[in-house]
């Protein structure tokens, strides 16, 4: 208990002595501190932030941490004030037994700047261990005839402290026969010897009890004792002598337990029982006592435990040879442990930066590696490597530290992560190696624009589609990840000349779902108004900044049979759908072209293919209609019994499914003379005579006004040529031409049907003649008839002047047609 109190006092005093810690920077850039051992947990070591020039307020942001090699963390860093303090109680004797200077090294890693600072802390010794003896009691048998001055080696005390705190002196308890002599070896070791100063007398005293005290130089001084018992014997005047003063042996560290190291031998010139020698260790440390053993009879020294070069490369032992008379001799044994390659390199990863961006430039640090090999020489030299097919390489940074850096640009779309295997191999024979795997993940960067599945899209939709119908769908993919791969779709609207207020037909016709790329119709399409719709779709990812790609989309509108045929000629002018009167002579031959029904269909394709059909006729079999042409022709000769007025109903039908149709009523008048026509037509409706008189008077008035004007112009040529020629007949012709343009841009031209009418001179009745029609799209202004003069002779005018029932004189066909339309 008193010894424990002395140790505690010693620790407190040592702590007070080393309150001020020495800090300096070595030439190599290292920082060294010095602290005493046995300091309490949390004791101040040094201001690491100040010594390294770091901002103590931002230590945690800089990623400053301690990288130590052992399992036990003896030091810790306070991020609040930047102080380095102890994390565990430090026992110098446990860490550095027998070493004069005890250094503990570790590294300070600044992850933000990837810098490493080496720190060494010297652990100074305090006098916390008292000297002790391996054997608390020794016995010597000394003959009473032993000569004065004879020496007896005593066991050496052990003190794990170093320097002045180790053993400094020995004291022997007071007695009359023995004294203590301290021997010093060349290496500085001391050991005590018991010297016989006064002859022994067994009869006077057979046993002498002595106390050997060993003291250290600490403050306070600590001591240890061993009891020495001297038994007085008779006659033994020769001590054993070893054949060698120093024995040396080398043994590999992997030598099996029980291996014979050497055999020591000593001789004693005495005879009898005094020549019998026993061997034992005189000086051995506690750890070595578990490694070596010696046979007390043969002197064979063998291994009791495993040797380890990394723990101790040299063992120094002392062996004592002692005879039964109590005399002894000693020798020294030096055991050199030969290193073998029994330690594979150890790989630790103090720092790993993962994930890293795919746009990381080459030579960017990814991980920091520490590689240690406890072997020595070439066996401790280590080479490191990574697979050659990976975009990484190793470069040495400091001592046993390596940096794993990028060697070439990374692409997450090709490889999203790497498992990098680092292999460390020493140069032993055979070489030993170890490996560790570092997982490096690659973070995404928005470096890929969306890609459409097609270069362009073409889709079809039938007209009259419902609103909201799906018309097509575009798809784009983005090889990036996360938000960088989230694709949204939008329509690109063209810029219109009207400016911002103008609405694009695309925006009013279609819309697109921003997530799925589905294109929907906002209205019902009409093929007759819109045949195709071209627009562009933009696919944009969610990166920052976003990337986009455009694609062209063509939407074709397909036709449906939703338009009935439209009859253009003959045009309907009445509510019942009937048209004007068409004329045909009763003397017509079969196949005579009466008129033509012209129709168009706004649809396209087979929906616009038209066919014509005669649904109804006054005289069945008299007329026929061309199926494709729509021409109404006589199918047979006109009979006397056939009525003057023929009503025909023509059906026009398209080829759609289902087909649509339209009909028109055509009235055909069969007559050879104008009076016959007039008489028949006058009976068709009441008040017709009144309309006829007005029409004839109007036309005749206009004609005679025109005639008088022309007569005045020809008076100048009266003498050279007669004004009027007898026997002349007036000719007139009309050119009704109709031209139509369909919505498809295809022009449909109507055949012009020209009718010529003439009055025969010298007759009281006018005869109406129907020459064959001219089937052309353009008509000549006049027909040749033997007299080009557009006027009648004077005799014809006078001959017909008294006939009030008929129209006299020639008149233009335009006026005739106008008249026919009025009376119809």
How are the SSEs ordered, and which strands pair?
Elements: H1 2-17, E1 23-25, E2 31-36, E3 44-47, H2 48-52, H3 59-62, E4 64-67, E5 75-77, E6 83-86, H4 92-95, E7 103-110, E8 115-124, E9 137-143, E10 151-153, E11 167-172, E12 178-184, E13 190-196, E14 207-216, E15 223-233, E16 241-242, E17 246-252, E18 260-263, E19 266-267, E20 277-283, H5 286-289, E21 292-294, E22 300-303, E23 314-323, E24 328-338, E25 346-352, E26 356-357, E27 365-372, E28 382-385, E29 392-398, E30 401-406, E31 417-426, E32 433-443, E33 451-452, E34 456-462, E35 470-473, E36 476-477, E37 487-492, H6 505-509, E38 510-512, E39 518-521, E40 532-541, E41 548-558, E42 566-569, E43 578-584, E44 593-596, E45 598-600, E46 611-617, E47 623-625, E48 631-634, E49 645-653, E50 661-670, H7 674-682, H8 688-714, E51 739-741, E52 747-749, H9 794-799, H10 813-823
Parallel strand pairs: 2-8, 9-15, 17-24, 26-32, 34-41, 43-50
Antiparallel strand pairs: 1-2, 3-6, 4-7, 5-6, 7-8, 10-13, 11-14, 12-13, 14-15, 16-19, 18-22, 20-23, 21-22, 23-24, 25-27, 27-30, 28-31, 29-30, 31-32, 33-36, 35-39, 37-40, 38-39, 40-41, 42-45, 44-48, 46-49, 47-48, 49-50, 51-52
Helix pairs in contact: 8-10
């Amino acid at each position: 208990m008193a010894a424990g109190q002395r140790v505690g006092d010693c620790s407190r005093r040592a702590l007070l002595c080393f309150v001020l810690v020495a800090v300096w920077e070595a030439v190599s850039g290292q920082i060294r501190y010095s602290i005493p051992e046995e300091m309490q947990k949390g004791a101040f070591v040094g201001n690491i932030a100040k010594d390294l020039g770091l901002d103590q307020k931002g230590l945690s942001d800089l990623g400053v941490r301690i990288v130590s090699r052992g399992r036990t963390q003896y030091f810790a860093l306070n991020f609040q004030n930047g102080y380095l303090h102890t994390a565990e109680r430090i026992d110098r004797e446990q860490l550095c037994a027998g070493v004069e200077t005890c250094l503990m090294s570790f590294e300070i890693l600044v992850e933000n700047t990837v810098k490493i600072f080496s720190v060494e802390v010297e652990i100074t010794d305090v006098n916390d261990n008292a000297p002790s003896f391996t054997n608390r009691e020794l016995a010597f048998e000394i003959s009473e005839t032993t000569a004065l001055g004879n020496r007896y080696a005593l066991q050496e005390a052990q003190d794990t402290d170093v320097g002045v705190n180790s053993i400094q002196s020995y004291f022997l308890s007071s007695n009359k026969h023995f004294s203590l002599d301290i021997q010093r070896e060349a290496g500085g070791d001391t050991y005590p010897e018991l010297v016989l100063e006064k002859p022994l007398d067994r009869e006077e005293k057979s046993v002498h009890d002595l106390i050997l005290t060993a003291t250290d130089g600490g403050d306070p001084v600590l001591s240890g004792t061993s009891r020495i018992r001297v038994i007085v014997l008779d006659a033994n005047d020769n001590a054993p002598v070893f054949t060698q003063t120093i024995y040396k042996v080398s043994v590999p560290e992997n030598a099996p337990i029980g291996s014979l190291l050497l055999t020591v031998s000593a001789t004693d010139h005495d005879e009898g029982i005094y020549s019998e020698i026993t061997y034992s260790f005189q000086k051995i440390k506690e750890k070595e006592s578990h490694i070596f053993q010696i046979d007390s009879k043969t002197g064979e020294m063998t291994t009791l435990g495993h040797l380890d070069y990394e723990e101790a490369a040299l063992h120094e032992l002392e062996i004592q040879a002692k005879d039964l008379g109590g005399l002894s001799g000693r020798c020294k044994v030096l055991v050199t442990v030969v290193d073998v390659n029994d330690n594979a390199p150890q790989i630790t990863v103090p720092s790993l930066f993962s994930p890293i961006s795919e746009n990381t430039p080459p030579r960017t640090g990814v991980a920091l590696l520490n590689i240690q090999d406890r072997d020595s020489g070439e066996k401790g030299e280590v080479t490191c490597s990574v697979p050659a097919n990976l975009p990484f390489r190793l470069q040495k940074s400091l001592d046993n530290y390596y940096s794993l850096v990028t060697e070439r640009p990374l692409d997450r779309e090709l490889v999203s992560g790497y498992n990098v295997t680092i292999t460390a191999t020493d140069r032993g024979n055979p070489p030993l190696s170890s490996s560790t795997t570092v997982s490096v993940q690659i973070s995404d960067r928005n470096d890929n624009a969306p890609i459409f599945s097609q270069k362009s899209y073409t889709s079809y939709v039938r007209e009259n589609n419902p609103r909201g119908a799906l018309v097509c769908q575009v798809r784009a993919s983005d090889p990036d990840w996360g938000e960088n791969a989230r694709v949204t779709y939008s329509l690109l609207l063209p810029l219109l000349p009207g400016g911002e207020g103008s609405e694009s037909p695309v925006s009013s016709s279609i819309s697109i779902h921003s997530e799925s790329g589905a294109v929907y119709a906002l209205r019902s399409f009409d093929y007759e108004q819109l045949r195709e719709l071209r627009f562009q779709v933009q696919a944009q990812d969610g990166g920052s900044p976003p990337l986009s790609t455009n694609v062209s989309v063509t939407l074709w509108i397909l036709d449906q049979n939703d338009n009935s045929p439209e009859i253009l000629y003959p045009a309907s002018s009445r509510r019942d759908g009937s048209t004007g009167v068409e004329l045909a002579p009763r003397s017509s031959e079969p196949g005579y072209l009466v008129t033509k029904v012209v129709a168009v269909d706004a649809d396209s394709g087979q929906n616009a293919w038209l066919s014509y059909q005669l649904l109804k006729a006054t005289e069945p079999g008299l007329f026929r209609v061309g199926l494709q042409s729509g021409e109404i022709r006589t199918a047979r000769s006109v009979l006397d019994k056939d009525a003057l007025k023929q009503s025909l109903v023509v059906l026009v039908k398209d080829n759609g499914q289902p087909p649509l149709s339209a009909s028109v009523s055509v009235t055909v008048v069969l007559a050879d003379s104008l009076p016959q026509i007039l008489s028949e037509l006058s009976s068709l409706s009441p008040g017709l005579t009144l309309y006829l008189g007005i029409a004839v008077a109007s036309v005749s008035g206009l004609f005679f006004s025109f005639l008088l004007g022309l007569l005045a112009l020809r008076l100048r040529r009266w003498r050279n040529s007669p004004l009027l020629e007898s026997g002349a007949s007036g000719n007139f012709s009309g050119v009704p031409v109709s031209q139509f343009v369909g919505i498809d841009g295809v022009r449909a031209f109507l055949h012009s049907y020209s009718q010529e009418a003439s009055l025969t001179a010298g007759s009281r009745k006018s005869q109406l003649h129907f020459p064959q029609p001219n089937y052309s799209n353009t008509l000549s202004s006049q027909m040749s008839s033997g007299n080009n003069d557009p006027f009648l002779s004077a005799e014809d005018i006078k001959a017909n002047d008294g006939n009030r029932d008929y129209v006299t004189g020639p008149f233009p066909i335009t006026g005739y047609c106008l008249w026919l339309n009025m009376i119809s």
